[in-house]
Specification:
This protein is an alpha+beta fold. The chain is built from 14 helices and 39 strands. It folds into five domains: 169 residues, no CATH class; 187 residues, DNA ligase/mRNA capping enzyme (D-amino Acid Aminotransferase, Chain A, domain 1); 90 residues, Nucleic acid-binding proteins (OB fold (Dihydrolipoamide Acetyltransferase, E2P)); 88 residues, no CATH class; 160 residues, DNA primase, PRIM domain, CATH 3.90.920. 20% of the residues lie in helices and 30% in strands.
């Protein structure tokens, strides 16, 4: 193999690419392979296979696919030296292949079949197996008949080997295999949807539903921390797990699983672990650990040795989990069963287990409730709100009064008076005292043949029962224990997006998960309250003034006579979401400096134009900003438009930013009349153009914040972008409530520079004025 073409195309004094050293080898078979993500004039992926001491290379414009039905074009390019297999960097402008190169995958490869590599290449049909960090399986390269192209054109095809997938997308894995991902100290767990029947079709992984306490185990440098579903450190509650980290074959790892206490027959029982949740004091905890030891059942692996695995398919994560866990008495991996969901559910019922889990084999890990994970319970047990307690001869209380949110109201379902021991009764009584109130939370108040002390419905408990009466009352209920919940909201099962079946609970869970990225962009900003109390099926309305009674902790300020919410705190965000505020629309300035905006807004709106036109307009904006020395940050609006934020230093007024935005709008409209239209009057705007709304830069004007869900069909999310993503094929609806969290976990806060970078406008304004004069 020759490297002459490689040398001829490059000036090694101007490019960081490695120069060949010596000649190529003579090895008959390949060993090393790599794939580089190359953001040159057009983004593509370079597949390189070591053959006879050099890297035979193919440029794959759309990247590899794991779907055997998808054939990817692969253009044969010049051979590269072996040293190129570890190359990452930026090739400067003016050089061949200018752009960034990321080592996307790295590993070994081998041909399969009895025919030599040389013969397979000669006949144009190379079959091989990749063993990489991202790709692991059988592929084929097939040469096409010569056409108009000067280069050989091949097809890269995934072979059927049990590792194929139609859901896998190369763009979901942009990260380098050389760059370590930061260790996540806290992760919001992925939650399952409850269904009545297990799925009967599709690629699902089935396992037992463990009746215990959800817990994520964080292992780092031989030490471990166990965190609850709410992120609290509960390590000290389970001292019997102290040797946990010794049985994990990884320096750093995050496992998801369940802490369980089995009964005498080995079946996990929630009522057995309940005392451990409420236990206080080192002596009491140690005694319980000795009498009824808990164990950790791991069912997912989220991080391992510098790699965040949450964007990898569950099938891969579960395989990696099995490879690093050395089971012992206190640690096991949840087994997957190769039977139908109906068979496993029947077996779980026979064994007296809580239920089963069905998880899509290709699902990514998202910190919200997802239909990719489904739970099916074997018996009648549910979670209910504690709405009061009866007073009788027993000390503290006689029974708990239960309710559930259904059909947009709190319904009474009965009382539970069994399942408690003396310690549990005393502990529950103490927890309920701060919640006591005179008024019943039910309308109408149910008739209960005992004196009742009502409590605010904020505590959630698990109850097992025989059946329900026709009136919805529980028969033979038994208290199982308290559930872990941050707080209880009104009507969490109300459907806000009918077409998708998205409930208020899902929306709350979404905002809880994205709050780490969203809240910095809301901090100290006044918010307009656009409310959808009945979901998007009805038109929303703006509430200008906070008139209802608010909690003391809720932040609000009097602005021009209106009591206005001020963003930045997580409880406030969730409180507004509970009120029906699906998205958050902040001002462009912060309290108390409301006259000073933080950025210039470029607001691009479609006027009967396609989104491709919006992309064209956004790239023209970037080109202009590059020329005048400013940096802008793009995001989708969640609708059919796009925003570009230009952060500015303090001291500018809205008149400054509005004038600056208007000047950009007029220059672009003059130079590109087929792309832009600027008239304020709707009737005067040219159709098929992009409307540049420069007037939006004004005091009191609001825009959809980054990371918010928009009240539109599909629950789209206003999503920050890298400029490399603003290209043909971008669809603003591809980012939505049910997949956006996984993206944000992968790419982080792309809008963080909007808050951190401050730019002056004077020099840029001078350059713009010269353009006008020119």
């Amino acid at each position: 193999m020759s490297l002459d073409r490689y040398r001829a195309k490059r000036n090694f004094e101007a490019t960081p690419e490695p120069a060949p050293v010596g000649g190529t080898g003579t090895a008959a078979r390949g060993a090393l392979f790599c794939i580089q993500r190359h953001a040159a004039r057009r983004l593509h992926y370079d597949l390189r296979l070591e053959i006879n001491g050099a890297l035979a290379s193919w440029a794959v414009p759309q990247g590899p696919s794991l779907d055997p039905a998808v054939k990817r074009l692969a253009v044969k390019v010049e051979d590269h030296p072996l040293s190129y297999a570890k190359f990452e960097g930026t090739i400067p402008e003016g050089n061949y292949g200018a752009g960034s190169v990321v080592l996307w995958d790295l590993g070994t490869w081998e041909p399969f079949g009895d025919v030599s590599i040389e013969k397979q290449l000669e006949r144009g049909d190379l079959k091989f197996t990749l063993h990489g960090q991202k790709l692991d399986g059988m592929f084929g390269l097939i040469r096409m008949k010569p056409g108009k192209s000067k280069n050989e054109e091949w097809l890269l095809i995934k072979k059927k080997d049990g590792k194929e997938s139609s859901d896998w997308r190369v763009e979901d894995y942009p990260q380098s295999v050389l760059t370590q991902d930061p260790f996540p100290e806290v992760i919001q767990p992925m939650l399952a949807q409850r269904v009545k029947e297990p799925p009967v079709s599709g690629d699902w992984m089935l396992e037992i539903k463990w009746d215990g306490v959800r817990a994520l185990a964080h292992i780092k440098d031989g030490k471990y921390v166990i965190r609850s579903r709410k992120g609290e450190d509960i390590t000290k509650q389970y001292p019997e797990l102290r040797d946990f980290a010794k049985h994990i074959k990884a320096k750093t790892a995050v496992l998801d699983g369940e802490i369980v206490v089995p009964d005498e027959e080995g079946r996990p029982r929630f009522e057995l672990i309940q005392p451990r949740i409420m236990a206080r004091g080192e002596h009491a905890i140690a005694r319980m650990a000795e009498q009824a030891p808990a164990r950790y059942v791991a069912f997912d692996l989220l991080y391992k040795d510098g790699r965040d695995l949450r964007t990898s398919p569950l099938r891969t994560r579960k395989k990696d989990l099995g490879s690093i866990v050395a089971p012992y008495e206190m640690l096991q991996v949840s087994e997957n069963f190769d039977v139908s969901g109906k068979e496993l559910l029947k077996a779980a019922q026979a064994q007296g287990l809580e239920g089963i889990m069905a998880k899509r084999a290709e699902s990514r890990y998202v910190s919200t409730r997802s239909d990719d994970w489904r739970k099916v319970k074997t018996g009648n047990d549910d979670d209910f709100l504690i709405c009061g307690y009866t007073i009788d001869k027993r000390e503290h209380f006689g029974a708990l009064v239960l309710g559930e949110n259904k059909e947009e109201k709190l319904n009474y379902v009965g009382n539970v008076g069994t399942g408690f021991d003396e310690k549990t009764v005393a502990a529950l009584f103490r927890m309920m005292q701060p919640l006591c109130q005179e008024k019943s939370p039910f309308t109408p108040t149910p008739k209960i043949p005992h004196e009742v002390m009502w409590v605010r419905p904020q505590l959630l408990c698990a109850v097992r029962y025989l059946e329900r009466t026709s009136a919805g009352r529980l028969r033979a209920p038994v208290y199982m224990g308290l559930r872990e919940e941050d707080q209880v909201f009104t009507h969490p099962d109300k459907v806000l997006f009918p077409a998708e079946g998205i409930t208020k609970r899902e929306l709350l869970e979404y905002y809880d998960a994205v709050s780490q990225w969203l809240l910095p962009h809301l901090r100290d900003r006044p918010l307009s309250m656009l409310r959808y109390p009945d979901g998007i099926i009805k038109e929303g309305f703006f509430q200008k003034n906070l008139t209802q009674k608010l909690p003391d902790w809720f932040r609000r300020e009097n602005i021009a006579g209106n009591l206005t919410p001020i963003g930045g705190a997580k409880p406030d965000l969730l409180y507004l979401t509970n009120m029906g505020c699906i998205d958050q629309n902040p001002w462009m300035s912060r309290w108390p400096n409301l006259d000073e905006p933080d950025f210039v807004l470029i607001d691009l709106d479609a006027k009967d134009a396609t989104f491709a036109k919006i992309i064209e307009a956004a790239l023209l904006v970037k080109d202009l900003l590059d020329k005048i020395g400013l940096v802008g940050y793009p995001k989708t609006t969640g609708g059919d438009g796009m925003h570009v934020y230009i952060p500015v230093e303090p001291g500018y007024t809205f008149e400054h930013t509005k004038t600056f935005s208007e000047l950009i709008a007029r220059i672009l409209a003059q130079k590109h009349p087929d792309t832009f239209t600027t008239p304020r009057a709707v009737a005067a705007r040219q159709t098929g153009r992009v409307y540049f709304d420069w007037v939006q830069n004004g005091k009191g004007k609001t825009i959809s914040a980054p990371y918010v869900v928009r009240p539109k069909k599909g629950a789209p999310v206003a999503t920050p972008l890298e400029w490399s993503e603003v290209k043909s094929g971008l669809d603003p609806h591809q980012f939505h409530l049910r997949n956006a969290v996984a993206r944000f976990q992968r790419v982080g806060d792309l809008f963080a520079p909007v808050l951190g970078s401050k730019q002056g406008l004077e020099k840029a304004l001078g350059r713009l004025q010269k353009m006008v004069v020119g």
